Amino acid sequence: MISIFDLAALLLTLSALFGWLNRRFLRMPHSIGLLVMGLLASLALVLADVVFPGQHLYEDLTRVLDQVDFTGVVMNGMLAFLLFAGALNLDLRALRDRAVAVATLALLGTLVSTAVVGGAFWAAGQALGSPVPLAWALVFGALISPTDPVAVLATLKNVKVPEALEVEMQGEALFNDGIGIVLFTVLVAFAAGKGGAATSAGGVATLLLHEAGGGVLLGIVTGYIAYRAMKAIDDFPVEVLITLALVTGTYALAQKLGASGPLAVVAAGLLIGERAPRYAMSDTTQKYVSALWTLVDEVLNSVLFLLIGLEVLVLRFQVSGLALAACAVPIVLVARLVAVSAPVLLFRWGGNLSLGNVPFLTWAGVRGGISVALALSIPESEAKPAILAATYAVVLFTIVVQGSTLGLVARRTLRAR
């Protein structure tokens, strides 16, 4: 049994080493490069174990990674800091201007995608002789439909798009995970036979209001308290500490109250990012707060994408489910196309959604660590190996292929408008 410090040392050392190698030789976008190198290292270890079975390198690293609770690390650790860092730099006034588009994509888009993915994944399983019950297929739809805010924000760093469209994408990614997690919770309970009243239409609406609405309200309250505290003093070490306390305290309190922790820290981050620099922070404080959260964002992103690449060592796939996993990639792409097209066609009168953005928004639907974490949290069942394999296939494809070609798609599709 190795200590938490040893695990952190290993992950940070590998992140630094792979980041240097990527920068020196591969020159891929940083996050994508770390994922690819982590995946290649995993495959190299598997091959080395076959060639040199006496060395036990594969077994040793697998034993270490088995001690990493990926779901806990992502959902109850990294996610709060990464979402706050992303929300802190999002222009709230620009987000208000795109509120209809963001809300429509986050809510309606997620619901439509969940239904399309679930139905198509179930049908593909039947056709390939690897059947997945419809209820579990819908669970897969719920966990894979929301675009991952961490992956989307990391990808956008390397792509130049119009400001309004960038705000739309960031806002959708920051808010739709809360919707997806509520759907995922309800559908897992139904699939596992523990639904009851919680899976009724009224139960879903109540749960959504409690988790999503409660999370946003909590974030506004704690964010405002932190803002007033920062406004009352001019001491950058204390103000930096207040932002750290705001993230950890808000996320922990949301979990205790049954509200959405991700939405709570997003709301708090938006409030602090909008008001604190103008009314509560000196230039010195702004410099230190910005530097801290930029560093937190970069370091945690590096470790998360490395973990996604290495996690292939400990995931248990079944060969019979690999064909279904391959089919999941086009299924999710088509569902994303339907999900972003439907709101545009239904609400074109509003002027906030553009049909010309559909190809780019479809290709920009990047999934990441949150989808993997949710898939790993599914109770053991016959459907879990197939869902895990499909989730991992989609995540790798969206980050590596879509993420690395998003700039090209942006130049082709946005210029053509």
TrEMBL record:
Keyword Cytoplasm tagged: no
InterPro entries hit by this protein: Cation/H_exchanger_CPA1, Cation/H_exchanger_TM
Pfam families: Na_H_Exchanger
Gene Ontology biological process terms from the UniProt entry: regulation of intracellular pH; sodium ion import across plasma membrane
Membrane topology: Multi-pass membrane protein
Ranges where the Cation/H+ exchanger transmembrane domain occurs: 14-410
Cellular compartments per GO CC: plasma membrane
Keyword 4Fe-4S found: no
GO molecular function: potassium:proton antiporter activity; sodium:proton antiporter activity
Residues passing through the membrane, by range: 6-22, 34-53, 73-92, 99-122, 134-154, 174-192, 204-227, 288-310, 322-346, 358-378, 390-410
Keyword annotations from UniProtKB, A to Z: Antiport, Cell membrane, Ion transport, Membrane, Sodium, Sodium transport, Transmembrane, Transmembrane helix, Transport
Localization annotation: Cell membrane
Major place of residence: membrane
Family: Belongs to the monovalent cation:proton antiporter 1 (CPA1) transporter (TC 2.A.36) family.
PANTHER family: NA(+)_H(+) ANTIPORTER NHAS2 (PTHR10110:SF195), SODIUM/HYDROGEN EXCHANGER (PTHR10110)
The name this protein goes by in its record: Sodium/proton antiporter, CPA1 family
Record organism: Methylobacterium phyllostachyos
